[in-house]
Structure formats: structure tokens, C-alpha cells
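Just curious. Invent one:
>
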Amino acid sequence: MKKYFENLAKAVFGQTFQQLGGIEQKVIESIANKEPLPENINTTFHEKLSFGQKMADKVASFGGSWTFIGLFGLLMLSWMSANSWFLLAENAFDPYPFILLNLALSALAALQAPIIMMSQNRQAAKDRLEITANYEVSLKSDIEITRLHQKIDDLTALIKQANL
């Protein structure tokens, strides 16, 4: 089998199997062993996430939804309405200009921004894995098509020789 790896690597890439990079070696092994190459990136990526990373993704997902915007708008209107009503009775706990509300909004933004950035960084890492997997599949397809062309050319040459 090792000789087959070497022959295939020389024929396709013009290098020995050891000289190839990891992706090319993986593709050559896949062709030689007649195994499928693709793996489900979503499954393997999400299995490796820690509890904190999964929670950050859920917080980022909720923080970027219309549900969050609606609930948050309702909370702000309730806060302002309650304080305006209590202001008439001179018992407002956060009178206009709602400084406590501004502090809460700033704290929320300060906490939510890094969580969303962590989620985006993980999405970028996942995208890089998907690009690598797509490259591997594309490379394998190109090699297999080239090999099929060579086999057809060899068969055509044999047929021509037989007819002479």
C-alpha cells in the first residue's frame, strides 16, 4: 500500500508522499484506501466546544434576535413609564434623565460586546475548517477526474493499437 501512495503522489504531485503537506497526504490516503473524505464539520466542531463557549454562542444568538430587541424595548418603556409615574408621586427611584437606566444599558453593552466577538471568532474558526474541508474534497475530485481521464486515454490508445 505504501508503494501505491508513493506512485500516486509522484503521478499527481510530482513529489514523494513524505514531501506532501498534510492535506495532500490525507487526500492520497483517501484515494488509495477508497474511503470517502468529507466529514461533518458542524458535528466535530461543536463537540469540541466548552460549556462557556456554548453559552456564549447562545447569548450571542439571543442578543441578536428580534425577541431580544422586543423584550428589551418593552423593559425600557416599562422602566421609563414606572419612573415617570413615580415621579408624579415624588417617589421615583430613577428620575429623568434615567441615569440608572443609562448605567444598566452601558453595562449590558460592555458585557454583550465581548461575548458576541467570542462567538464571531468561533464562527470564523469554523469557516476556516469548512474551507479546508472543501479544498480537500475539491482536490480529491480533481485528482480522481485526472486519473479517469488518464484511464480513458490509455484505453483509447489500446483500442487504436488493437485496430492497427
Notes: The CA atoms of residues 51 and 57 lie 10 Å apart. The radius of gyration is 30 Å. The helical segments are 2-13, 22-32, 41-47, 51-63, 66-88, 99-163. The mean pLDDT is 86.
